[in-house]
Amino acid sequence: MNKMNITRKKHCLLLIILSSIFLISSCSDDDNDNNYKSDVFSNIIVFGDSQSDMGNYPQSLYYQYDPYSSSLNEIATNLYNPITQPIDSDIFAPIDLGSLQFPEVTDTYDTVALSVDTQSICTGRYIEKAVCNTRQSNSTGWLEYFAYNGVENDELFNEILLSSWVAYTNEDVDSIDMVSVDYAWYGALSPQTGCYNGNQAVLLIADECPKSDIYSVQADYRESQILENDKPPLSAADSYTLEATMPVPTLYQQVTQLFLPDVEKNPTQVNRDTLYIFYSGANDISNTFFDWVGGEISFDDFIDAIWTTIPDYMIGTHNASVETMIRGLNLQGQDRGNIFMFPQYNLGLTPDINYYLMQSGINLRPVELQAFAKVLGELVKIYNERLKLLTYKTASAYALIESDHYPKWHFYFLDNLYDNMNIVAYGDGYSRTFGSPCNDNEYVYDNGGVATGNVTPCLSRLSDPFLFWNTVHLASPGQQVIAQSALDWLKNGETILDTGALQSYTLEDLENAAKAVIAALYGYTTDIDDGEE
């Protein structure tokens, strides 16, 4: 199997593709300062999946018996929104990773709340006579830590008004200049085509999810999650059925169906100091991995997805999300900006991997899980390097075809995230809870303590800390690692053209890393069926 020639040929076309993009905007630059580079960013635009979703995917009334959850107790993945964990400054102070402060409303930082979201949560085991309580906890994700501390501590932003896309559309703030908008969605994949729900099931035989469906179905679902006379309007089963009909825009569709139409409506939403963050790929990698080890796709297909297909969704090809965004902005007279590409932390750290092993009859102690996570982490490191190389090639191509070789688009790559998350995950403080989620414990299951605002044992300052809230989403410490890593990188100011990018992994290295995962899973070296006779 040799994909290298195909990949090289694709990237040889990159200069031609980018040249065609810049023909659109070559005469529209009113700036005489070709060497301009943002020191302070005006606002943030975020694209991605549940790791960055701060309210686009609706909250559910029910928090137990989710048929799609990998939790041992079937506790819903979408327990809170954003999909992180209930957290406030009194429950869990920031970890000692840097100088992060807990986000709070100030004169220079605020968030836009969605007024139509349910403020209740019900115990799903009582379907006919649901026991419902007022939500007394909210979540704080990396984006909020990042934005708030970027204003307060690092002076990366002068002020931030942060909003989910749904709130931006609903709460009469879409006419305000320089709102920071989060377009990320729980469950989002990254391809250009297809329409999927939050569980990545295909919804429509269509090229993409229409904006009208994305908006209207989530609005209908939100309405169904508001109590009527203190009772849920739908049973848990009916609620999950309706939720499964809700389109979730892919990374590409977040750009084309949501963001670019917003800019067309309000061109002053962005400017040359806007910071565009792309943080996607975890669902694509995870689904591909489980499809492969489950025998649903071949070895060759898995290797091709990690080496080429998934990175290409993001950047480096004509139809990649980054290039599509830049081309769309150029058409609207926006020909400068700052792009921040996020790689993945080691997905082998997630409790989802541990639960998969348990369901396969493989029960590992925390120290054994740590060892397996390092093996699986090699796949993620190779994927990250591929993404970095594409980012570097794209940034270089843009700089090469621009006047005086001064780039109008500055590209950053979050190169410290993988190592920073590993440092925390493999630290002594998390050794006892490695591979275990905070929410999947008897206290939550039996008492609904989180739902009523009580502190669960796994969030107590006196207990062992947890890096993950549920099987796939980080708890507050992990959220802070992402935020601190991003703040440190931007404060340092190095673009990817400053740091460069070297190819240290080959296609053969990826194949060997994949075989090592199988060998670790089953305890012996095996030849993988690659679909060839």
From TrEMBL:
Signal peptide: 1-29
Keyword flag Iron-sulfur: no
InterPro entries reported in the protein's UniProt record: SGNH_hydro_sf (IPR036514)
Keyword Signal: yes
Keywords (A to Z) from UniProt: Hydrolase, Signal
An annotated Gene Ontology molecular function: hydrolase activity
PROSITE patterns reported for this sequence: PROKAR_LIPOPROTEIN (PS51257)
Protein known as: SGNH/GDSL hydrolase family protein
Taxon lineage: Bacteria, Pseudomonadati, Pseudomonadota, Gammaproteobacteria, Alteromonadales
